[in-house]
Amino acid sequence: MLHGDYGAQHILALNQPKGSIAAFMLLMAIGTMTMYVYYATVYAAIQDVIEPRLRGTAVAIYSSPCTCWARVSAPLAWDVERPPCASSHA
User: Fold this and answer.
1) For an engineered disulfide with 28, which of 12, 13, 35, 38 has Cβ 3.0 to 4.6 Å away?
2) pLDDT tens figures, 53-74
3) How far apart are alpha carbons 12 and 53 in whole angstroms?
4) Model-level pTM greater than 0.85?
5) Is 79 left (phi over 0), alpha (psi -120 to 50) or beta?
6) Is the dihedral of CA 32, 38, 54, 51 positive or negative?
């Protein structure tokens, strides 16, 4: 299952040859830390700037293009076929 939050570091980590545990751990850690720092600051900024009754709409407007782009570009990186913006549920 592919998820929209995989970054280049995650893809590089998952494509390491067998036995490259240190490289895998380093790349996966960098990708995960980057992802958490990015999302924490973006969603905190949305909470600060947008009035409470519109926050859900603002998050949806922000995250939809990002998720759609990730689902379109991920199959290219993973060399698998997947329809754009398809549900990740089986």
Assistant:
1) 13
2) 999 999 888 888 777 776 776 6
3) 40
4) no
5) left
6) positive
